[in-house]
Amino acid sequence: MFKRSLWILVLPLLVRAQSLKEFEKKITEFTLPNGLHFIICERHEAPVVSFHTYVDAGSVDDPKGQTGIAHMFEHMAFKGTSAIGSVDWPAEKKAIDEVEAIYDQLDAEQNKGAKADQEKINTIRAELKAAMDRANALVQPNAYTSLIESNGGVGMNAQTGLDATEYFYSLPSNRIELWFMLESQRFLDPVFREFYKERDVVMEEYRMRVESSPQGKLLQAFLATAFEAHPYRVMGTGWPSDIEHLRSEDASRFFKTYYVPSNITMAIVGDVNPADAKRMAEKYFGPLQKRPMPPLVHTVEPPQSGPKHAEVESRSQPLLIMGYKRPDQYDKDDPVFDVMSGILTEGRTSILYRDMVRDKKLALQVETQGSFPDSRYANLFIFFLVPNLGHTVAENEKEVNQKIEEFKASLPDPVALQRVKANVRAGLIRSLDSNSRLAALLPAFYAAYGDWRKLFTSIDDIDKVTAEDVQRVARKYLVVSSRTESETVPPKGASK
Q1: Which of 244, 386, 402, 439, by CA, is between 20 and 30 Å from 92?
Q2: What pTM did the predictor assign?
Q3: pLDDT digit string (tens) for 90-125?
Q4: Alpha-carbon distances, residue 340 vs 266, 398, 416 (angstroms)
Q5: C-beta of residue 368 within 8 angstroms of C-beta of residue 356
Q6: φ and ψ of 382, to 5 deg
Q7: H or E element in which residue 224 lies
Q8: E strands present in 327-426
Q9: Nearest 10 degrees: CA dihedral of 29, 34, 35, 36?
């Protein structure tokens, strides 16, 4: 779970706090009776506060046949409520209900399959479009966003990962209660307005990120090949055939199942009084109904019994992705994968950069990632290579495989091992110690490990990694039988 990019964000906190005990003095935690957990961090250097809502549900939780539904919430995040975002809510509500009723008719006819009346389908579609236009005409565009910005809000955004969905922005400290009021209403009184308009936007994102992107196509093929059963096999964008059939009622079911108080962690970092924050949390979020925790993903990826390979035809720059199965973030060897990644490709003195990019000039780019595509469940240690002009994927594949075997055959250079650990600490020089970054980290670690203190103990875990650990993990997991490769190839018949 603890990506290398997060080390750079965490270390300035360690320097400032000097110790976990000292940092703990700035933290106040409490859980409301409904299960909603808050982490408050006091930092009074400036009159600003960053807010971060972490929902422990992402694209991996998409129901079967509804891939992309978790991602839809990123697009519906700030559409408002019945009181915010509507020109005339009673009229809009009636128009939204009309849209759903007509859509039910369309689904009913299409579900007849070969017996469906295409002329009737076309008529219903025309009626549906007209109903959507009437509903959308009653929307006050960007009302929620404008309200935040007019009160000094900045950095307002949302993001969907495989394992989680996050919502965040910052406000002046004298506007804290505004956040409590607005954020609580997003959960108490959500309106999925313009749902089908945003669904079209998600479809367009898929076209841009996958269909029009060689890297996107390659990544999609790679994941679908590497994972046979686990939902990590599907990119967060979902499959187009699922997206185009998503309904507003699907979103409502997902919301009721996964957006429950006990599955949400909220962090507030900055110029905040913890006692005031708790009082406002009880006032505004207390009315949220306590509901059961959502189900976990029970599908376990079966053991891989041999190497897998996928090819994607493309006229683009040749690309290669290689991945090896590895355990989840809770495994004792999790920090070893981060160290191993650093030794292999971090910086100009790393093993693969020095050999393949600098000396032999086989590759323009070679990267590794310790955990991919996410880390709550068993995942992959990956290599990403871009061959240099005049060199092929096959050459790069042969060279990287040879270097992996050499890496497994001997202990890593002690200097390289210390360099990786030192780079973790040196990250504090390059990083900005911001409220918003800390507000993102605290709930992420709490949700993953049940304790935000893992931020600090993970640093110790990296320090404890030995050269013998790296060699052992490399020998255990970088094996041919668990490898998946995906590469771009020229279309058949295309000129060289």
Answers
A1: 244
A2: 0.92
A3: 999 999 999 999 999 999 999 999 999 999 999 999
A4: 33, 20, 10
A5: no
A6: -120, 155
A7: helix 214-226
A8: 363-372, 379-387
A9: -60
What's the pLDDT score for residue 19? 67
Asked if the domains 32-86+139-284 and 308-489 are classified in one and the same CATH topology, the answer is yes
pLDDT score of 458 more than 70: yes
Give, in degrees to the nearest 5, the angle at Cα 492 between 491 and 495: 80
Q: For 147-174, what is the mean pLDDT?
A: 97
In this predicted structure, what is the pLDDT of residue 49? 98
- The structural architecture, per CATH, of the domain 308-489 is 2-Layer Sandwich (3.30)
Tell me the one-letter amino acid at 216: G
Boundaries of every domain in the chain: 32-86+139-284, 308-489
Instruction: Inform me whether the pLDDT recorded for 421 exceeds 90.
Output: no
Pairing state between β 264-270 and 379-387: unpaired
Q: Which tokens in the block code for residue 164?
A: 């989680």
Question: 404 Cβ partners below 8 Å, 6+ apart?
Answer: 474, 478
Q: What pLDDT does residue 199 have?
A: 96
Residue type, 151: N
- 32-86+139-284: CATH class: alpha beta
- Range list of β-strands (E), 148-217: 154-160, 165-172
pLDDT digits (tens, 9 = 90+) for 3-12: 444 444 444 4
Return the residue matching tokens 């103990």.
457
